[in-house]
Design brief:
The chain is mainly alpha-helical and 66 residues long. The protein contains three helices and no strands. The protein has a single domain, classed as Helix Hairpins (Orthogonal Bundle). Helix content is 73%, strand content 0%.
Length: 66
């Protein structure tokens, strides 16, 4: 999954953001599991990229509640 910009994420509605967040959390769990087993990561920066996307989505969700 590619890094998404804030403007791309803001175009999504809250339901779509929730689905994307769930998918990203599953991806993060999978990547961390592979790293814990000692497997060589296919893309070393993928965990950081996923975490950034999760933070961006949570920021937009928080702003929408205000």
């Amino acid at each position: 999954m590619a890094l998404m910009t804030m403007s791309e994420l803001r175009e999504l509605n809250l339901e779509e953001l929730g689905e994307r967040l769930k998918q990203l959390r599953d991806d993060l769990m999978h990547e961390r599991g592979q790293a814990a087993m000692g497997g060589a990561p296919a893309s070393p920066g993928k965990i950081r990229q996923i975490r950034k996307n999760i933070a961006r989505i949570k920021t937009i969700q928080r702003e929408a509640k205000e």
